[in-house]
Specification:
The complex is a heterotetramer. The longest helix of chain A has 21 residues, at about 450-470. Chain A is an alpha/beta fold. Chain A contains 16 helices and 28 strands. Chain A has a five-stranded parallel sheet with strand order 8-7-6-12-23. In chain D, strands 2-1-3-4 form a four-stranded parallel sheet, with helices on both faces. The longest helix of chain D is centred in the middle third of the chain and has 18 residues, at about 90-105. Chain D is globular, with a radius of gyration of 15 Å. Classes of the chains: A alpha/beta, B alpha+beta, C alpha/beta, D alpha/beta.
């Protein structure tokens, strides 16, 4: 059957269309043999474009489809499904990235961007021509989940999954559940705390679907969605469990601002968390409290806003003021970030008489005093002069920071982390609690500093996402595995040596010749073995030598 | 031994004058002559003093100049209107090939039958027509030479336009066979003298002929396993074919470029496993023995049947360059023995 | 005439091996087109054993034939010099043959004669040479014009000057004690590699272009190599077409680069590629360069020396050099 | 039959090299996307081929690309230890290093063939790296493909 390729170029409104001369690209593409149709869409991912696409496939008898639009990392599944709905095997679809990797990065040279886009589409066509139909690889899923981190987010996830009937393994490195939240006296915004947390912890302890591993760490993880093999280490003991999905809820740490504002040197300078913990254990009556926000954050080495500290400061300021209305409470800040309903509490704090003053990063406040701080001096921009506030307590609002273990965890689970060392989800908007790696999910402050409300919401979200494949009971993997052409295999065994998954092994042929065979379930499609094979007997589906060479050839 | 006749009147040119003559020729024609690098080969001459005169024979035969290893046949361009084909430009400027040996001159006449017979191969013919051949006789031979087997006289200029014989300090102009040759001689009039010289008329060492009379026409009688056993040491490389002055098989390949491409023909060799492989994957000559048999049949059976001439000229290149020292003479002898059995 | 005795010994042993069915094929050497030209010889029955010769001209590495004949023969007998045994070690390591399928006859070697060097030393009329014997330092060539003595190190192959044998390789028979010959000078190829390295990139390019201009893509270098055993070579594939016969410098460079790269860690430095090349291209240069780099960068040992170990590109070290990043 | 292609931009007189980039799906391809999302400016002289892991890039691709007249070939992969497939990039590192040396030995500047680690979050690093590497190729000038 003749190969009939249809090419569809998306304008993505002005995103692509504003830089790339789409008709020009189409004109160029039409001259390639086997391209029977080249069309443009305003938004290829819109509902009506997709139905047009389906019609075109049927109408023109297309047996290969190339869509040039955004990045395959987000939209490829959508178009693949669309092809499938039109009766075309999903593997006969090829995605070309002309938005992120062309229009957006080359917006400054439009003519060249157009030329490049045409070239990229050519490459896509070159590969599409050689695509072969495949079926997804099906794997059964173990109906159990592992939650790493026993904070609020992890507990929420664990409870939720357990209540859906899944076996849950909850691993916590400390000796108690609750995480950072257990340090707080009250939670924002309703300022209840303890009670709720102990309720959650009790629920965990009572749930027979949940096994809790305290003082434990993850030592090793292998496998994939459906069957991860995780080794849990508790002191000298090691336990291996097989789970279908994993939720990372390791939370964040709190910055201890040593060297800043006399922290660690002056006895009455502490962090918000330490104050919260202190006030939880005993009633302190401070009369003159100064809080300094943005300590160690929004600075060069930590440029992000931790998002929760302003609210914690306000919460604690209110609780000081409420327990002792005579107390003078001052919050020195750079900007106040209280989004959503928290704004109410900000107003309430002002009504209570809590002072809010802005300081600048160029002239940060100074704490004066020996042994303990008695005065905070800051430069007031409005007044245009230094102002002294006397104090008997200085509370520093420090940001949540990524856990030190994140780097080693990222390596263990093969998931990415951001420059700030927080875990990086698959897509901030489209796949917020998932990783690009199937079967591993993320929630809470491990992803980004969030307050308890969001931690809980994300805990639910991650649980819901993790439950989807487990409810289905089976998962389909993209069949981009490697396989060996027995006829050409020399049996040298290079592929066996390089395979990270032990997926390749010898197989005896009748004619007294040794060749190799790839276990399609174990193979994860990295292609290490393909590059090690000298004569190309080993090939990776969807990334074969022929396909990639054809792309190079189309570019040359 | 001394075979020189005393005092015969001959046209001669001294070594120094030869350079001057060639320099003059170079002014009118593209000049090709043997040049030495890692090996001696025919090359286009930019400087006459680069010409190598003390060579036995070149590594690659002169066929490279008429039937190059890679030759563009045509190029094509595709646009939305259709496909436009452009024939490769052929040699227009006339050229002179200096230093061809008698065996190679015979080989060219064999190639003429192939490319200029029933099917006229314009690429070859054009080049052939525009090339004047200056031959040099062999006063010495290599132990691999066996041209006399095929009735080739190492001191005869058959098939050349001009034929010289190297006499050490000077060259004798033994033959001027064509009008084109005469006009080249005219260019060198001032350098060519007629003198009474001691003239050498025979090769210094005569090449040893082998008896092939009973072979051609009887090849079919050779048993199959003879070929399998004889071909054992063969590595299936392409050396013997590529250095053979009469081998002329080629493959046609397209080099695709953006919206078009070029069609080339390239030398191919019958000892290659893929030589006879068809598009379907079927391969009639899958074993080395079958391929080896084909190679000998082509030269000593198909050729005589079709063109009434053996497709070998006894230049001995395939013997000298074979990495496993296979000897065509030895094989022919064994074939004869096998036929007689 | 120790050599003649060895030759006779070899013939007798091979006769025996074929007679009692130990091997069904024996690969050795026989006389080619002249005394100094030796061809590989395939002996299938006892009567053929008489064709076998053994002298200082027997230079081919016969291990290259094993993959081709392995499938059709129960057990192959093969005659190897110490250096060729390295190829056998590698073939076993690379799973191309099991040691039990081979019957290895080790033959002593005091350096093999490089015909092109001999031609320079002796002159072109090599057919005059009718016999050879040797002393400690020289080869004595018996010619029609009497005996001529030539120092060994002047005419042996470059590779012989730095002879290396595999460690602990078990021969089935040793015709005589295997000794590593010693010569006064070292293998010049190391120096040539260094000379090449010292050139600028443009100069290197120029040198290679001049070499490549002589290359006729006959691929004898590949066919002569013991390590070329893939059922279908990447260069022969029609789909995808990595390589075409179009003889441009670019194609030739691609061919030689890929060939050398595929040999990384597998080249036993038998020099067959260079010996086979009809155009006289110094191919060992490239192989040696790669061997040198794998040694320097990845601490890899030369191929074929020990029977354990993984190819350098099939493994890694977390602390591999990353200066180039 | 082989001519040096004129690839000089008439307007700016700047040489536009032909560069092939292999980027691994998990890190550097995502970084390229991020560079786009962040609207960073990158010179347009390269084309990316997405592979699942940098270890999928067989060295023969690089050699092939050079034989087809590319001026540069870059491979981008995950940082050591961060490979989605645990160890693919370690193999890549070895292969690249050896090939770089071999190319250099055969007269192809090893600077034309580069390996860099770019993680998914390093959009800016992607842009900066590409800019620098492409600049490097521009400085080297076009490759004469018939030599």
């Amino acid at each position: 059957m003749k190969t009939r390729i249809g090419v569809f170029v998306c304008r993505c409104g002005n995103n692509i269309g504003g830089v790339i001369d789409v008709p020009n690209v189409l004109e160029d593409v039409r001259s390639i043999s086997n391209v029977v149709l080249a069309e443009e869409f305003m938004y290829a991912c819109s509902e009506d474009s997709l139905s047009t696409l389906k019609e075109r496939i049927k109408e023109h008898g297309l047996n290969r489809v190339v869509v040039a639009a955004c990045t395959p990392r987000t939209h490829e599944p959508l178009f693949k499904r669309c092809c499938e709905e039109a009766g075309l095997n999903r593997y006969l679809f090829e995605f070309v990235n002309i938005r992120e990797q062309c229009a957006w990065i080359h917006a400054h040279e439009k003519a060249k961007a157009t030329k490049k886009a045409a070239g990229l589409v050519r490459m896509g066509v070159g590969k599409a021509f050689l695509l072969k139909p495949r079926e997804d690889i099906e794997i059964d899923i173990t109906p159990s989940a592992m939650i790493i981190g026993g904070g609020v987010s992890g507990i929420t996830s664990a409870l939720n999954l357990a209540r859906q009937g899944f076996e849950v393994h909850l691993v916590e490195r400390s000796d108690h559940l609750g995480g950072v939240a257990s340090d707080f006296k009250t939670w924002f915004p309703d300022r209840e705390g303890d009670r709720k947390l102990s309720h959650l912890v009790r629920s965990i302890e009572c749930d027979e679907n949940i096994t809790v591993y305290l003082s434990s760490k993850i030592k090793d993880c292998s496998g994939n969605l459906g069957a991860f093999t995780v080794v849990i280490q508790d002191g000298d003991k090691e336990r291996t469990v097989v789970v279908g999905t994993i939720v990372i809820a390791t939370g964040a740490g709190v910055l201890k601002p040593h060297g800043l504002y006399g922290y660690g040197e002056l006895s009455n300078v502490m962090t918000q968390m330490e104050y919260d913990n202190l006030s939880k254990r005993r009633k302190e009556k401070y009369k003159k409290v100064v809080m300094i926000n943005c300590v160690g954050t929004r600075v060069t080495e930590r440029p992000y806003c931790s998002q929760v500290c302003c609210m914690i400061a306000i919460k604690n300021a209110i609780s000081v003021k409420e327990s002792n209305p005579q107390a003078a409470v001052h919050i020195l800040h750079r900007d106040i970030l209280v989004y959503g309903t928290a704004e109410e509490y900000y107003r309430y704090a002002m009504e209570l008489g809590i002072g809010f003053s802005r300081y600048t990063i160029e002239a940060p406040p100074q704490i004066l005093g020996e042994g303990s701080g008695d005065t905070v001096r800051y430069y007031d921009e409005t007044a245009g002069k230094d102002i002294d506030i006397s104090c008997d307590l200085v509370v520093l609002s420090t940001p949540l920071v990524a856990q030190e273990e994140n780097e080693s965890m990222a390596k263990l689970f093969k998931v990415p982390i951001s420059e700030e060392r927080f875990f990086l989800e698959a897509h901030q908007k489209l796949r917020p609690v998932e990783f690009a790696t199937d079967g591993i999910y993320i929630c809470g402050s491990a992803r980004w500093p969030v307050d308890i409300r969001e931690s809980i919401a994300q805990g639910y979200a991650a649980a819901a996402k993790a439950a989807i494949p487990m409810h289905r009971g089976r998962v389909f993997f993209e069949a981009i595995t490697a396989s060996c052409d027995e006829k050409n295999c020399s049996g040298c065994g290079s592929c066996i040596e390089v395979c990270p998954y032990n997926a390749v092994d010898y197989k005896d042929l009748e004619e007294d010749r040794k060749v190799v065979e790839v276990n399609q379930v174990k193979c994860k499609g990295c292609g290490c073995c393909v590059s090690a094979c000298k004569n190309g007997a080993m090939q990776q589906h969807g990334f074969s030598d022929y396909q990639l060479l054809s792309m190079i050839e189309m570019m040359a | 031994m001394d075979n020189r006749e005393k005092g015969v009147e001959r046209k001669i040119i001294t070594r120094d004058d030869l350079s001057k003559w060639l320099e003059k020729i170079k002014g009118h024609f593209d000049l090709y002559a043997p040049v030495r690098s890692t090996v001696v080969n025919f090359g286009k001459i930019e400087r006459v003093d680069k010409i190598c005169l003390d060579f036995m024979n070149t590594f690659l035969p002169p066929k490279v100049l008429f039937f190059p290893q890679t030759e563009e046949l045509f190029s094509y361009a595709r646009d939305s209107e259709g496909i436009e084909v452009k024939r490769a430009e052929d040699l227009i400027k006339e050229r002179v090939l200096f230093g061809i040996r008698p065996c190679d001159a015979r080989a060219l006449s064999i190639l003429d039958m192939v490319f200029g017979g029933e099917i006229q191969d314009s690429h070859y013919i054009e080049k052939r027509r525009n090339t004047v051949l200056i031959g040099i006789g062999c006063t010495e031979s290599l132990n691999t030479c066996f041209c006399s087997t095929f009735g080739i006289d190492p001191l005869s200029g058959e098939g050349t336009d001009i034929f010289l014989i190297d006499n050490g300090g000077y060259f004798t102009i033994k033959e001027v066979n064509t009008q084109r040759g005469r006009s080249l001689i005219d260019l060198g009039n001032t350098f060519i003298k007629t003198e009474k010289v001691d003239h050498r008329e025979e090769a210094g060492s005569v090449t040893v002929p082998i008896n092939i009379a009973s072979i051609t026409g009887n090849m079919e009688k050779v048993q199959e396993d003879f070929w399998n056993n004889t071909s054992d040491p063969c590595l299936s490389c392409g050396i013997c074919t590529y250095v053979c002055p009469t081998c002329h098989c080629f493959d046609v390949e397209d080099e695709e470029k953006k919206n078009g491409g070029v069609r080339f023909r390239t030398w191919d060799f019958c000892m290659s496993k893929d030589f006879a492989r068809m598009a379907s994957g079927e391969n009639p000559r899958i074993s080395k023995g079958e391929r080896y048999r084909h190679r000998y049949f082509h030269k000593f059976d198909y050729f005589p049947k079709k063109y009434a001439v053996v497709g070998c000229v006894g230049c001995g290149r395939c013997i000298s360059y074979c990495p496993v020292n296979m000897d065509i003479r030895k094989v022919l002898e064994r074939i004869r023995e096998n036929i007689q059995k | 005439m120790i050599k003649v005795m060895l030759q006779k010994k070899l013939q007798d042993r091979v006769k025996e091996l074929l007679q009692n069915g130990t091997v069904s094929l024996f690969i050795g050497y026989e006389q080619g087109p002249g005394f100094v030209y030796v061809s590989p010889c395939f002996v299938r029955d006892e009567s053929g054993a008489e064709r076998l010769v053994l002298n200082q001209f027997c230079s081919n590495n016969l291990a290259g034939y094993i993959h081709e004949y392995n499938a059709y023969n129960r057990r192959i007998g093969i005659c190897v010099k110490g250096c060729d045994a390295r190829a056998l070690v590698e073939l076993v390591k690379q799973n191309q043959i099991t040691r039990e399928d081979l019957f290895v006859v080790g033959v002593p070697c005091t350096g093999r004669i490089d015909i092109s060097k001999l031609r320079e030393e002796y002159g072109p009329k090599l057919e005059e040479i009718k016999g050879i014997s040797e002393t400690e330092r020289s080869f004595l060539l018996e010619t029609v014009r009497g005996t001529k003595e030539i120092y060994k190190e002047k005419i042996v192959f470059d590779k012989c000057l730095s002879c290396t044998h595999p460690e602990g390789f078990e021969y089935d028979i040793l015709l005589d004690e295997l000794k590593i010959p010693e010569f006064g000078s070292a293998d010049p190829v190391q120096k040539r590699v260094e000379e090449m390295e010292s050139l600028s990139t443009a100069e290197k390019n120029e040198v290679w272009c001049s070499y490549l201009s002589q290359c006729i893509l006959c691929r004898a270098c590949q066919k002569a190599c013991y390590a070329c055993y893939c059922p279908e070579c990447i260069f022969d594939k029609a789909y995808p077409r990595w390589f075409s016969k179009i003889s441009t410098t670019a194609q030739k460079r691609l061919y030689h680069l890929i060939r050398a790269y595929h040999l990384a860690g597998r080249c036993v430095d038998c020099g067959e590629c260079e010996r086979a090349c009809p155009a006289g291209i110094p191919l060992r240069l490239l192989n040696k360069k790669i061997e040198k780099e794998t040694k320097k960068l990845f601490n890899n040992r030369e191929a074929g020396i020990n029977q354990e170990g993984v190819l350098p590109l099939n493994t890694f070290d977390i602390d591999d050099p990353d200066f180039f990043l | 039959m082989e001519k040096k292609e004129q690839r000089v931009d008439r307007g700016t007189e700047q040489f536009s090299p032909k560069i092939l980039v292999f980027a691994c799906n998990w890190c550097s391809y995502a970084a390229a996307d991020l560079a786009g999302v962040s609207r960073l400016e990158v010179p347009s002289d390269f084309r990316i081929i997405r592979v699942m892991c940098s270890a999928r890039v067989r060295p023969e691709f690089v050699i092939y690309a050079f034989s087809r007249g590319f001026d540069g070939v870059f491979i981008l992969g995950c940082h050591p230890g961060e490979c989605h497939y645990s160890e693919g990039n370690y193999y890549t590192r070895r292969r690249v290093l050896l090939l770089k040396e071999t190319l250099q030995f055969m007269g192809i500047e090893s600077e034309r063939f580069q390996l860099r680690w770019v993680s998914a979050s390093e959009g800016a690093k992607f842009a900066g790296t590409m800019k620098r590497l492409i600049e490097g190729i521009r400085d080297l000038g076009p490759r004469n493909i018939d030599t």
